[in-house]
């Protein structure tokens, strides 16, 4: 399944009911951006979404997870360790996924920082146990 198709399906799942879609004035731009795979547009909409009371928490979480997945993908393609770490930490601010913790643990291992590595791996295990196993970057 393509990432674009997965994003579009997730957008329809997040909407919930037609009433919630009508109530949220940002629903249409979010759905359009998600269908087009336009993460930059989602990033631009996100600050408005935080303050919009008519929009669901599921929609807020969905947008954050898509942005986090995009940051995660950029981090894994980056050759520079400092850039990878910055992107992964930014991804965690959006959505705390186990794969992000595991990647940060790998960076700590590369720096021979075993205390940080073990803490991050434990956080990854907690997310696997308590959170969803999928990731928008998958």
Describe the protein's architecture and organization.
The chain is mostly helical. It has 8 helices and no strands. The protein has helices at 3-15, 18-23, 27-36, 39-51, 57-77, 81-94, 98-110, 114-130. Helix 4 runs antiparallel to helix 5 (57-77), helix 5 runs antiparallel to helix 6 and helix 7 runs antiparallel to helix 8.
Which features does this protein show?
single chain, 138 residues, mainly alpha, 8 helices, 78% helix, 0% strand
Which overall shape is indicated by the principal axes computed on the Cα atoms? elongated
Summed up, the helix count is 8
Beta fraction = under 5%
**Helical coverage, percent range:** over 70%
Give the class from helix and strand content and strand pairing.
mainly alpha
**Counted beta strands:** 0
Spatial gap, N to C terminus: 10 Å
Largest sheet: none
Low-confidence parts, pLDDT < 50 over ≥5 residues?
A: none
**What's the average pLDDT?**
85
CA-atom Rg in angstroms: 16 Å
Instruction: Give the SSE order as H and E letters.
Output: HHHHHHHH
Short description:
This protein has 138 residues and is an all-alpha fold.
Show the helix and strand layout:
Blueprint: H1 3-15, H2 18-23, H3 27-36, H4 39-51, H5 57-77, H6 81-94, H7 98-110, H8 114-130
């Amino acid at each position: 399944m393509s990432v674009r198709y997965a994003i579009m399906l997730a957008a329809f799942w997040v909407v919930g009911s037609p009433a919630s879609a009508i109530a949220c004035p940002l629903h249409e731009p979010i759905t359009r951006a998600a269908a087009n795979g336009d993460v930059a547009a989602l990033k631009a909409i996100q600050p408005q979404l935080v303050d919009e009371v008519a929009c669901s928490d599921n929609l807020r979480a969905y947008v954050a997870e898509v942005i986090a997945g995009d940051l995660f993908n950029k981090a894994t393609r980056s050759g520079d360790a400092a850039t990878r770490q910055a992107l992964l930490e930014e991804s965690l601010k959006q959505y705390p996924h186990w794969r992000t913790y595991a990647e940060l643990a790998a960076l700590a291992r590369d720096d021979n920082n075993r205390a940080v590595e073990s803490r991050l791996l434990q956080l990854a295990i907690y997310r696997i146990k308590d959170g969803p196993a999928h990731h928008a970057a998958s």
